[in-house]
Amino acid sequence: MSSNVVEPTHFRLPDMLSNWPWPRHLNPHYEVCKKESVAWLEMFHAFSPKAQKAFDLCDFNLLASLGYPLHDKDGCRVGCDLMNLFFVIDHHTDIADPAGARDQANVLMDVLRNPHMDRPSGEWIGGEVARQFWLNALLIATPTFQRHFIDTFEMYVDGVVEEARDRTEHYIDGIDEFFDLRRNTCGVKPTFAMIEIGMDIPDEVMQNEHIAALILGGVDMVIIVNDLCSYNVELARSDSHNLVTVVMHSLHLDFAGALEWISDLHDRVVEKFLLAFSQVPHYSDPDLDRQVTQFIHGIGNWVRANEVWSFESERYFGKRGKEIQATRMVELLAKAVPAPKTMSPEILIPYMA
User: Rounded CA gap, 148 and 352, in Å?
Assistant: First the structure.
């Protein structure tokens, strides 16, 4: 008998949010905010024609409108601008070397700290995009939100620089290293901060152990769903910064084994998230209690928003998103990921009891 192993041509995408208590919820200002934000971004000519086509397929305005369904029109617009800014940053840093990514990160942080200063002539275009986004956000932003957003955005850009270094060296992290880095590079922490743009939640409340657990769990669920949905895209371009690739290499699993491991991990994260949600304290100040309640529900909603956007946009599955959402069957590309230069010797499994 032949010992040749037949590689699978399709895989079933796990339905990991089938019992998630937050349903799909779309901001009623989606259409007008999308139109305005797209027109605004087009003024910068930040993309090549090919990248512009990819951008148009993503509809990050839909993601923002799903993620911030309770924001008023101004808040929805700022959310749309943020999602579009993330694409500008990702597009330009993905092709930058570590030094170039560091320069771009420094520009972004200077913009957030000095938004009223004109940007130097000839500077990377992302700086002016970020400046105009931030000036618009400041019109409705509380000082507390501003501080939280800048802190989390700095984590994001520092992570992007580290990712550029890993990409240059063709390095594949171990699982623990991967999550430590991906929790920043995914941009979800500043995305969650945007939920509180009009709120004034004190630092000591945001640092409550249960709220911190919700933020961490929400970030990890977004990572897991993103990396499962984007695996084919990243496989085609030999991008090793993906959880599926990391698990296969780190645990010496085949593709099916990695999917099962990741699905089980997600189940554990869901369980811990729902437990932490039930343990968030109530506060005697009615306004603070209302804001905390809205914030933690906003995290749960974002997990759902990210999942449904993955199918409703054309970023990962083209025009077949709704079909794949229903059948969960995805055609698996055959292009192999190159072997890593080095591996982390230690594997720490997150969310293990």
Answer: 29
User: Do residues 156 and 136 touch, judged by C-beta distance below 8 A?
Assistant: no
- Angle formed by the axes of helices 243-251 and 255-279, to 10°? 110
Unique residue bearing structure tokens 């070397």? 97
Burial class (CB in 10 A: 0-12, 13-18, 19+), 292: buried
Residues 197 and 330 in one domain: yes
Residue 298 inside a domain? The answer is yes
Q: Is 164 in contact with 170 (CB distance < 8 Å)?
A: no
CB 96 within 8 A of CB 330: no
Q: How many residues are given for the chain?
A: 353
Average pLDDT taken over every residue of the chain: 90
pLDDT digits (tens, 9 = 90+) for 108-140: 999 999 999 999 999 999 999 999 999 999 999
Any domain includes 30: yes
Residue 107: closest CA among 124, 91, 88:
124
Query: Strand, coil or helix: what is 279?
Result: helix
86 & 202 share domain: no
Cα separation, 208 vs 210, whole angstroms: 6
Residue 211 is part of which domain span?
144-155+170-353
Q: Which CATH number do you get for residue 112?
A: 1.10.600.10
The whole-angstrom separation of Cα 60 and Cα 133 is 15
| Single-letter amino acid code for the residue at 347 | I
Taking the model in full, what pTM does it have?
0.90
pLDDT at residue 268, as a whole number: 97
